[in-house]
Amino acid sequence: MPAEERHHHHHAAAAEESHPHRPLVLERADKPPPQNFKTLLCKHAKSHCSCTPQKVRSKILGFIPILRWLPRYQLRDWILGDLMSGLIVGILLVPQSIAYSLLASQDPIYGLYTSFFASFIYAILGTSRHTSVGIFAVLCLLMGQVVERELALAGYPPELSSSSSSSRVNTSSDLFSELIANSSAGAVCDRSCYAITVGATVTFTAGVYQVLMGIFQVGFVSVYLSDSLLSGFATGASLTILTSQIKYLLGLRIPRAQGWFTLFKTWAAIFSHLGQTNICDLVTSLVCLAVLIPTKEINDRFKSKLKAPIPFELFVVIIATVASHFGHFNTEYDSGVAGTIPTGFMPPQLPLWSLIPNIAVDAFSIAIVGFAITVSLSEMFAKKHGYTVDANQEMYAIGFCNILPAFFRCFTTSAALTKTLVKESTGCQTQVSGLVSALVLLLVLLVIAPLFYSLQKCVLAVIIVVNLRGALRKFLDIPQLWRVNRIDAGIWLVTMTTSALVNTELGLLVGVLVSAFCVLARTQRTPVQQLGRASDREHYEVCANYLDLQTHNGAPVFRYTSPIYYANQSLFKKSLYKSVGLDPVREKAARLKESKKKLAAEAKGSRKDDKEKAATVNLMMEANPKASCLVLDCSGVQFVDTAGVNALKEVRKDYAEVGVSVVLAQCNANVRDALERGGFSAGNQPNDTGFFTIDDAVDFAQNLPVSNGNHEV
Question: What global pTM score does this model have?
Answer without folding.
Answer: 0.75
